[in-house]
Amino acid sequence: MKRVAIIGCGAIGGVIARSIDRGDVDAELVSLMDTQPEACTKLRESFTRQKPSVATSIEEVLSLRPDIVVEAASQEAVGQYAERVLEFSDLVVLSVGALLDAEVYQKIVEVTARTGKRIYIPSGAIGGLDVLRAYARAGVSRLRLTTRKPARALGATVTTPTVVFRGKASQAVKAYPKSLNVAATISLAAGVEAEVELIADPNTDRNIHEIEAESPAGRLRIVLENVPSPENPRTSYLAALSAVTLLQELCSPKRALAFY
């Protein structure tokens, strides 16, 4: 049975941890870590099966020999801990925006080349990554993300749909680190940096992502209308479910089907 540790006990980390506790993921949850340890303790108190430790440092997490560490905290956490984690464990990264930092990305790639450990990126709040990865083989000439979110979730006081950001994915993930990790995910999959537009919309209660891509192999347009996470409206419930699905695949001793 795989041993899993989770960094970040917020909305998404909580969904993942409770899925392991219910037995939806065939794994042992060995450790929880958060900048607010009380969040870990509160989450652990809701469990009926798992008894993870509450760690206060990454060294404490790694001392428990996890096979997989799940980052569900922040881009800063990826920068702080990814290199160290990959010395000993595979890493699931949810704050994908961190990987658009060239220095962080290069250091992580060097560690994985040396240790043989892997980084896994869930599909998150979007779809079509399989197509984008295939398009990348032929070259992607155009990649665009238009995201529309409830204005209140973005802290915007507007009465009509308003563009609050327009620019490159690398700029988007810095300006809205909790809201636009999908921009990094599609950029990494396609091998080109996406053009991004973020709209604060007072008339919607969904997180809507429209992805457009062009390649010699074809043209893609996907629209997803996601229900926001009840605990964190800036992110989609789908993002947590995709992470759980990935963990199910990584932790399953026998996988009859694998989708790529």
Automatic annotation (TrEMBL):
This chain belongs to which protein, by name?
A: L-aspartate dehydrogenase
Keyword Secreted assigned to the entry: answer is no
- The record places the active site at 209
Q: Which InterPro entries match?
A: Asp/hSer_DH_NAD-bd, Asp_DH, Asp_DH_arc, Asp_DH_prok, L-Asp_DH, NAD(P)-bd_dom_sf
Task: Name its pathway.
Answer: Cofactor biosynthesis; NAD(+) biosynthesis; iminoaspartate from L-aspartate (dehydrogenase route): step 1/1
Anything further noted?
The iminoaspartate product is unstable in aqueous solution and can decompose to oxaloacetate and ammonia.
Report the enzyme's class at the first EC level: oxidoreductase
Family to which the UniProt record says this protein belongs: Belongs to the L-aspartate dehydrogenase family.
This enzyme catalyses: L-aspartate + NAD(+) + H2O = oxaloacetate + NH4(+) + NADH + H(+); L-aspartate + NADP(+) + H2O = oxaloacetate + NH4(+) + NADPH + H(+)
Q: State the organism named in the record.
A: Infirmifilum lucidum
Name one molecular function that GO assigns to this entry: aspartate dehydrogenase [NAD(P)+] activity
Q: Which residues bind NAD(+)?
A: 125, 181
Q: What does this protein do?
A: Specifically catalyzes the NAD or NADP-dependent dehydrogenation of L-aspartate to iminoaspartate.
Q: What is any Pfam family matched here?
A: Asp_DH_C
Occurrences of domain Aspartate dehydrogenase (ranges):
159-244
Q: Which residues form the Aspartate/homoserine dehydrogenase NAD-binding domain?
A: 8-122
